[in-house]
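Students often ask why inverse folding is considered easier than folding. One informal answer: many sequences map to the same fold, so there is more than one right answer. In these notes we will look at a single instance of the problem. The structure comes first.
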């Protein structure tokens, strides 16, 4: 019965949207099922309570305090459960454990085994995976839908194929803002205002109004990715990588596009580190 939360919540959101119309200010966003991406996907492929919505999470961990150990772990989360249940240990499915001690050079090769099982999306000619619903005592067909792939700023580069937050175009949402770097330094920073007496050629652009930034659309992402993939040599690749912020295709691009949040929309922001770690470590010492 707990798995039927998906059906109940989708009906609740549909009813709420019908009553509110275009007044999105009063919508209560308490789950990813409330988001615009999920609602568009539900309308496009007719999501039902029999379907299965999953999310992937990846992160590295130091298992020893005084010993070098870079262990990488991925997990699968079932979003059919309510938010107070889906992150319980009994409902979390281990995906990948890369023991280290060094960071993997090709994380895709480890993630592939788990991603490969997402080929269940194509089971029974695309009609879904046959499953037994114990509550209803019947066989159902369930579409396997990938909602989100989550990670912190370092881990996200392993799945989204982008260059990371210290690149020239380091925004994980793909906004057009270009960073700036110090003289003779390679790390870019998200500096909105042009510093005084700043004359570095490759990032000497005017001030940026962050209130008018656009996110990267799926069409623009595919166009930028095509530039990178079609690079003629290493020099051309480095130029296109710096210009687009994309270093390679995401491994998630191999999944069925009609049964997932499209790349790059499936890569959300990492607010946990921003609010609870980064800002805390910055502001508390200042105070």
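Output (designed amino acids):
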């Amino acid at each position: 019965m707990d798995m039927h939360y998906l059906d109940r919540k989708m009906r609740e959101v549909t009813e709420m949207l019908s009553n509110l119309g275009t007044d999105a200010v009063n919508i209560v966003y308490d789950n990813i099922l409330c988001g615009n991406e999920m609602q568009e996907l539900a309308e496009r492929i007719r999501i039902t309570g029999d379907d299965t919505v999953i999310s992937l999470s990846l992160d590295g961990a130091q298992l020893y305090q005084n010993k070098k150990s870079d262990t990488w772990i991925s997990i699968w989360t079932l979003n059919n459960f309510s938010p107070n249940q889906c992150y319980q240990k009994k409902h979390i499915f281990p995906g990948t454990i890369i023991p280290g001690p060094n960071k993997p050079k090709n994380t895709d090769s480890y993630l592939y085994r788990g991603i490969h099982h997402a080929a269940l999306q194509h089971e029974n000619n695309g009609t879904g995976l046959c499953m037994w619903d114990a509550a209803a005592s019947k066989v159902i067909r369930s579409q396997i839908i990938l909602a989100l792939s989550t990670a912190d700023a370092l881990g996200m580069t392993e799945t989204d194929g982008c260059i990371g937050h210290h690149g020239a175009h380091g925004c994980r949402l793909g906004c057009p803002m270009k960073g700036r770097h110090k003289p003779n330094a390679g790390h870019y920073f998200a500096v909105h205002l042009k510093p005084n007496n700043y004359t570095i050629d490759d990032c000497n652009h005017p001030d940026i109004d962050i209130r008018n930034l656009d996110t990267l659309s799926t069409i623009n992402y595919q166009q930028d990715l095509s530039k990178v993939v079609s690079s003629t040599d290493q020099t051309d690749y480095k130029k296109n990588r710096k210009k687009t912020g994309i270093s390679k295709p995401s491994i998630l691009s191999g999944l069925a596009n009609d049964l997932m949040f499209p790349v790059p929309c499936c890569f959300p922001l990492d607010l946990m580190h921003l609010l609870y770690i980064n800002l805390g470590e910055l502001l508390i010492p200042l105070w």
